[in-house]
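Thread: quick sanity check before group meeting

JM: Hey all, I'm pulling together slides for Thursday and realized we never actually wrote out the predicted structure for the chain we discussed last week. Dropping the sequence here so it's in one place. If anyone has concerns about the input, flag it before I start.
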Amino acid sequence: MSAASKPELFGGTLTFTQEGDSCSVKDLQQLEVAVEDAGGGKYMVIKTDRWAIDSVADLTALLSRVKQVWAEEWDA
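JM (edit): ok, ran it. Output follows.
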C-alpha cells in the first residue's frame, strides 16, 4: 500500500430490529441493509423476511441513516 492511499471501507451490513406487527407470527422483525461495491460505486442490498412500516417516509428515513453512516465512502 502506498503512503498516498488510505484504507477504504469496502462493504458491511447494518441490521435494524423492531417489534413484530400485529399480523406477524414473530415477536421480532429484522431488516438487513448491506452496502456493497462491485467496482462501479456503492449500492444497498436489502434483506428481510418481514418488515412493517406505517409510511414510505419511515423506510426512506431508515435508508438515509444507512447512507449517512457511509457518507465518506459513498461517492468515493
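AS: nice. The chain has one domain: 12-74. The CA atoms of residues 60 and 66 lie 10 Å apart.
JM: adding both to the slides.
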